[in-house]
Write a structure and sequence with these properties.
Layout (H helix, E strand, L loop, with lengths): L1 H6 L9 H9 L10 H12 L10 H6 L1 H12 L5 H16 L8
Length: 105
Amino acid sequence: MYHYSIKRRDIPDTYSIEEFVPRFMKGEFLENFGTWDEHVCSWQGTRQNKAGFVLLRYEDMLADPGRELDRMTRLLEVGTAPEAVARAERMGRDHAKSGLRIELL
């Protein structure tokens, strides 16, 4: 939405994403969009517990990556060897150790 808002000229090119995110989360842009929470609840309510939909949360991936990867592979109907899941978990831990952090406001 940040780049889209710049493209629509809702915000200037010089507007920082750090300024944008808190205001976007409060619903201050795209008046028909509402707050982020309202947006998420609207599509979650129509899709929850239906075939072809899995709600994947970042926090759940951190807490139990194996379980969440299993949920994704079942949704995609792809077989996954335990070695592949273990490798993905290692890669996730290595990525987390790299120092890249996303702060949620």
